[in-house]
Design a protein that fits this description.
heterodimer, A: about 150 residues, alpha+beta, six-stranded mixed sheet, 2 helices, elongated, B: about 110 residues
């Protein structure tokens, strides 16, 4: 058998890199009805990026319980407050995670929950203000062990 | 299931103060995605709604989906303008409602 030369060795190495990168690229795809959830929530209006800070770990070792905190800039008075916040996971079997409903009595538009993530994916938050304006934010979470028992 | 929900909030607050409330209730939150040893799907059984009200007025609520972890933990804030009672309720898929109450006083 002929020993591989320098050029072939590079080609082989490149192949391995491609193989290891490919599943990661596939992970970022939307695999469920996330768009439908968002459309139902926004009524077709396009949300603007901003106002929301979404706090999630960059890497979640255990997808069964991933801490999520969301905080929206708002005075939270009777005239101007955050009404609802939709949380979506675009790589779970079902996109919906939770819909948080605030009132002026909440004082702060801030909440924390723990969620399940099946795989590496984007978590999206969409906030609806009392005046009807919409804001959005998203974060990618890498999941080591999936949390949907599938 | 029968475990009492755990709720953490201050005993008293200044008028107008925004306090943090932490709640945790024991529940399997069966997602309806898992299969048992026979390959049959385990039916979904989750808490689908959590709500908190203060002296009868809604403070915070959330609709929960199967993507919420077992023993759902919810943390949120509330503004306290008067002394009173917080009422918490967790609604199960099967219709049972777990409830809890916590009192809060105003700082003298």
């Amino acid at each position: 058998m002929k020993a591989i030369n320098r050029r072939q060795a590079f080609a082989l190495g490149g192949g391995f890199v491609m193989l290891t990168l490919m599943p990661m690229a596939a992970d970022a795809e939307v695999t469920n009805d996330a768009a439908k959830w968002i459309e139902k929530f926004t009524g077709g209006k396009q949300p603007v990026k901003g106002k929301i800070s979404l706090d999630l770990p960059e890497i979640a070792e255990n997808g069964n319980t991933v801490p999520l905190s969301v905080n929206i800039e708002s005075p939270m008075t009777a005239d101007s407050y955050v009404k609802d916040v939709l949380i979506i996971a675009d790589g779970n079997p079902n996109a919906g995670v939770a819909t948080l409903s605030f009132t002026p009595l909440s004082g702060k538009a801030e909440a924390s929950i723990r969620i399940r993530l099946a795989t590496t994916q984007n978590v999206v938050a969409v906030a609806k203000m009392s005046d009807g304006s919409l804001f959005t934010e998203q974060k990618t979470v890498k999941v080591t062990i999936g949390g949907c028992g599938g | 299931m029968a475990d009492k929900p755990r709720i953490k909030l201050p005993k008293e607050a200044a008028k107008g103060e925004v306090i943090q409330i932490k709640t945790l209730v024991s529940h399997v939150m069966e997602s309806g995605q898992r299969k048992d040893a026979q390959g049959k799907t385990i039916p979904r059984k989750i808490i689908n709604k959590f709500a908190c009200e203060f002296n009868g007025k809604p403070v915070f609520s959330c609709a929960l989906e199967p993507a919420i972890s077992a023993n759902p933990y919810v943390q949120f804030d509330a503004r306290v303008d008067e002394a009173g009672t917080f009422k918490f309720s967790w609604t199960d898929d099967d219709g049972t409602v777990i409830t809890a109450e916590e009192k809060i006083a105003l700082k003298a």
